[in-house]
């Protein structure tokens, strides 16, 4: 899903950015080892990219979710928001780095039932949080708890929602091109 209007701000690089943007790009490079197209555009607002990087790192480090669970949360949010860039990037990360089972990854990408019951409950609750704008019903919370998750996990989903909203919306506005390393995991909204 892309915005009707495309922002007309140039991609930035460590070599050409002003000092404020350069510092944030260097931080990004230290975290991931390269500058994804998304970061090169988001850094036009250094606060936007810096907030994203800090929130993303905190979720990865301290959320209490396993790698496959983290990717489930990020992928469901990105699918619900129609972010083609983040779906492609997180699909590659899920497959190559986070250990999300291929059948679960395929189901999440397709919006189909997830074969792993615990991940299915996590995905359903994450979807509820996106679509109900953080106002889950008592029944939705009870089902989430019954799957083995806690109230703390609900707050961590709020963190993930915040981080993915920053990136998903920026990608919509920039019409961000998928990096070549993610190309094999391209996803199209509505597909």
Describe the structure.
This protein is mostly helical and 191 residues long. The protein contains 9 helices and no strands. Helix 4 runs parallel beside helix 7 and helix 7 runs antiparallel to helix 8.
Structural class: mainly alpha
User: Terminal Cα separation, in Å?
Assistant: 11 Å
* Share of β-strand residues: under 5%
* Arithmetic mean pLDDT: 97
| Number of E-state strands | 0
What percentage of residues falls in helices of 4 or more residues? Answer: 55-70%
Overall spatial form: globular
Structural topology:
Layout (H helix, E strand, L loop, with lengths): L18 H14 L4 H6 L3 H17 L4 H15 L2 H15 L3 H9 L6 H15 L6 H9 L4 H24 L17
Helix pairs in contact: 1-3, 3-9, 4-5, 4-7, 4-9, 7-8
Quick structural summary:
The chain is an all-alpha fold. The chain is built from 9 helices and no strands.
Features:
single chain, 191 residues, mainly alpha, globular
